[in-house]
């Protein structure tokens, strides 16, 4: 694959704009500084890691050694920072307080960080999407909204969008849009992972709670509610998922190379088996009806007497700010088209991801990359390590080091589960394919390449 055009010389003095000051955005800043570039980090929140702070009570299933970017750690170490115990598990709040906040405060990054700066549009200076001649020579123009509502424009020679997806949760409605009645019931619906055992305790204690979603966020919500039920009599848990089969629902268990991730699934399975909660499969929400308690219609079944709903059904990227850029997105996943086959749960049979970097993340818009969770579009199972390697590769490409950009170093822990229940003979989801790098190599040599 040929390299994109180099950034024009007149634009070299402009910074590289980084949208978002979460783990991946700050890692991008560290990598840019290490390569002699000037970052400009624009964060919509009032602190770094603002989205993470919203789920700060949740403990990550990946230990510290998987949560820290190498370039960021090297920068921090120069100022006396010490890595937390590598095998311990931080909460979201720990990640912000013990890693992101110190990183943002370093004298190298702090001058290039702007908080309360929400990017509302990205375009090329003087060029709408239709205009081609001279486009690649024009700097990027970002429209930034300040805390007071005023707007300004900033110029950049390149853009890394690490704004994530947390603020764009998927709705309860099965069709990808809010179900009729969902918006009207907004005061009784939380999207994400509420702090059931902390500041939101009174909201859920003694209530009938419906949890919708089949991923790790839903696992966390269900486990917290089950703990609350032991302390607050009358707390009742319904768990609704769209899938009909539970064969792969609980993950890889003891086969998962992230032990804490595997344990989440095992604990939830135990709750289901012991009757602590009711699991409703094949439930696709079509309507929410109001009343003293909510009624939720799911096609073949109707759930009555619901006091509160937790929608932990994933999130999606906000592409509206990129509407004047030329993007090459997969129509279903909404990730870069070349990345989609690696992460699409409809095609991607094993729970790991092949190494990928700047080549897979490229768009027709030169020197523009979406990185981090947002690069995955609507696909799940993103890990911080993935984002850190993405920005290392993308920054290498931005400085013209395409050899370094293509030397992708991503090695992720195996999930120990294949998500397609009936693969064809010799397909990539054979048991051996979920057994690690060596097993995948052996399978490939035998003519059975692994999707993972």
How would you sum up this structure, described in words?
The chain is an alpha/beta fold and 452 residues long. The chain has three domains: 9-167 and 315-406, FAD/NAD(P)-binding domain, CATH 3.50.50; 186-308, 3-Layer(bba) Sandwich (FAD/NAD(P)-binding domain), CATH 3.50.50.60; 420-452, no CATH class. The protein contains twelve helices and 16 strands. It has helices at residues 23-34, 50-54, 70-77, 92-104, 201-204, 216-231, 259-273, 340-343, 358-361, 384-398, 402-406, 437-445, and strands at 16-19, 39-42, 113-114, 118-124, 140-145, 151-156, 158-161, 189-191, 208-212, 236-240, 278-280, 287-289, 294-297, 302-306, 308-311, 368-370. The strands form four sheets. It has a five-stranded parallel sheet with strand order 3-2-1-7-16, covered by helices on one side. The chain has a five-stranded parallel sheet with strand order 8-15-9-10-11, covered by helices on one side. Strand 13 and strand 14 (302-306) form a beta hairpin. Helix 1 (23-34) crosses helix 3. The longest helix is centred in the middle third of the chain and has 16 residues, at 216-231. The radius of gyration is 23 Å and the shape is globular. Residues 1-7 and 419-452 have low confidence and may be disordered.
Short key terms for the protein model shown above:
single chain; 452 residues; alpha/beta; FAD/NAD(P)-binding domain; 3 domains; 5-stranded parallel β-sheet; 12 helices; 15% strand; disordered N terminus
Strand and helix order: EHEHHHEEEEEEHEHEHEEEEEHHEHHH
Strand content: 15-25%
| Domain unit count | 3
Q: Strands across the major sheet, in which order?
A: 3-2-1-7-16
CATH H-level name of the largest domain... which superfamily? FAD/NAD(P)-binding domain
Q: Count every helix, treating DSSP H or I runs of 4 or more residues as helices.
A: 12
Strand count, sense and barrel status of the largest sheet are: 5 strands, parallel
Judged by helices, strands and strand pairing, the structural class is alpha/beta
Would you count the extended β strands for me?
16
CATH level 3 topology of the largest domain: FAD/NAD(P)-binding domain
Quick one: overall form? Answer: globular
């Amino acid at each position: 694959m040929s390299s994109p055009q180099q950034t024009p010389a007149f634009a070299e003095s402009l910074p590289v704009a980084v949208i978002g000051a979460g783990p991946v955005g700050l890692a991008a800043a560290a990598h840019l500084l290490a390569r002699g570039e000037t970052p400009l980090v624009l964060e919509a929140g009032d602190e770094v890691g603002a989205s993470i702070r919203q789920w700060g009570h949740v403990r990550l299933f990946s230990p510290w050694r998987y949560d820290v970017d190498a370039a960021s750690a090297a920068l921090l170490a120069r100022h006396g920072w010490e890595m937390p115990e590598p095998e311990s598990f931080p909460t979201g709040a720990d990640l912000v307080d013990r890693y992101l906040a110190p990183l943002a405060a370093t004298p190298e990054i702090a001058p290039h960080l702007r908080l309360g700066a929400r990017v509302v549009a990205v375009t090329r200076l003087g060029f709408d999407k239709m205009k081609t001649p001279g486009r690649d020579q024009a700097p990027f123009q970002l429209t930034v909204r300040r805390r007071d509502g005023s707007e300004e424009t900033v110029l950049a020679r390149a853009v890394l969008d690490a704004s994530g997806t947390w603020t764009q949760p998927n709705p309860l409605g099965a069709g990808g849009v809010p179900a009729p009645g969902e918006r009207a019931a907004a005061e009784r619906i939380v999207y994400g992972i509420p702090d059931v055992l902390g500041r939101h305790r009174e909201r859920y204690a003694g209530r009938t709670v419906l949890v919708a979603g089949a991923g790790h966020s839903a696992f966390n919500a269900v486990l917290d509610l089950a703990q609350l039920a032991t302390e607050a009599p009358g707390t009742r848990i319904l768990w609704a998922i769209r899938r009909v089969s539970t064969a792969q629902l609980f993950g890889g268990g003891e086969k998962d190379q992230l032990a804490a991730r595997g344990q989440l699934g095992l604990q939830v399975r135990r709750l289901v088996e012991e009757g602590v909660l009711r699991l409703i499969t094949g439930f696709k929400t079509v309507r929410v009806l109001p009343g003293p308690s909510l009624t939720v219609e799911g096609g073949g079944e109707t759930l009555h007497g619901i006091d509160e709903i937790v929608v932990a059904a994933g999130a999606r990227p906000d592409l509206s700010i990129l509407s004047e850029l030329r993007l090459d997105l997969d129509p279903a996943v909404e990730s870069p088209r070349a990345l989609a086959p690696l992460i699409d749960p409809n095609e991607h049979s094993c729970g790991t991801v092949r190494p990928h970097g700047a080549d897979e993340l490229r768009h027709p818009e030169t020197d523009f990359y979406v990185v981090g969770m947002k690069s995955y579009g609507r696909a799940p199972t993103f890990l911080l390590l993935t984002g850190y390697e993405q920005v290392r590769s993308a920054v290498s490409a931005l400085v013209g080091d395409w050899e370094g950009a293509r030397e992708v170093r991503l090695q992720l822990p195996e999930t120990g589960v294949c998500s397609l229940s009936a693969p064809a003979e010799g397909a990539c989801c054979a048991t051996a394919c979920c057994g690690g790098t060596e097993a995948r190599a052996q399978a490939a040599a035998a003519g059975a390449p692994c999707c993972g």
